[in-house]
Amino acid sequence: MRHALTLIGLLLIVPASPAQDVPPRPSKPPAEVKAAFLKLLDRPRVPLDVRSGETKREDRGLVVQRVDFAVEKLPDGSTERVPALVVRPRAAREGARMPAVIVLHGTGGKKEGSRPWLDELARRGFVAVAIDGRYHGERAGGQSGTKAYNAAVVDAWKSKPGDPQAHPFYYDTCWDAWRTIDYLQTRDDVDPGRVGMIGISKGGIETWLAGAVDDRIKVAVPAISMQSFRWSLDHELYQARANTIREAHQDVAAELGEPKVNARVCRELWSKVIPGILDDFDGPSMVRLFAGRPLLILSGERDPNCPIEGAEIAFLAAKVAYREARAEDRLKIMVARNTGHAITPEQHAAALDWFVTWLRPEPPPAGAAR
Prior knowledge:
The protein is an alpha/beta fold. Helix content is 34%, strand content 21%.
């Protein structure tokens, strides 16, 4: 499949529709996959009950606001709330409804770490919002690093049949992303018909999962995240992915009587806490559901977390789906040459340009801070 990549500068640009492409393997129809994923993640909704926190008008021409909102009722009767950071241009035209972009962070990150993306997007005319993923940032219970995240995954693994199902590994944050769209739709400065999403690493996986089945996401940029989980297991290249939550995988290995984390450990853990990720909800299947909507995929040629050979299966599935939808111009795949788990400056700039091109924000007023 490498012959399909064309070298341009430091980037490998994957052509949108070589005539010889065929689907990598049979999959369920996209509509069936979409319905199944939505059903799996569905849970009782609660009113958003938005609480506004501190709002600051910054010298750089931005308004920064902290909010939180309710997303679901938990089995113990408490309410799960999502803390969010919203950045918008201060000089926006009065009464204007701007496009919005949701930014999802990676493993161990938090919403504040997305601030550079939020600022750059706001300066281009967007309302930009970042949330803390489940068991991250303000939702980590005061624990540092990924301790809360690992512990939640282990708890989900140990759940018994009939227990309330939790999916802290990617899926629960997908639900939070959908509720973030609900929140954006309540804002009088957001155009609900122009919402995009970008995610980095873990957040990128959540972007291609959550965005694939929610048509309210009009433009998506999954970054350093596109892959085939199934291919990685089948080809013994699961190690880097497992190491993103190493302690959880080690605990499961011990419980299964394995001397170390291996493919069996990953297969059993993933099948329990992210069911379907090795089949219907894997990258090559889910990426087809974007066909027709602008999709920019950013990958690294040497990314150990997302082996390029598995990613190429998803690229192929996307190209076939976009060709069938006659929307080849809305798909772009950028693979950074000799790059690992990182976004290059060229890819970063391309992501910002992608949102500007497809969500059409108003240009900032003359003299506005950039």
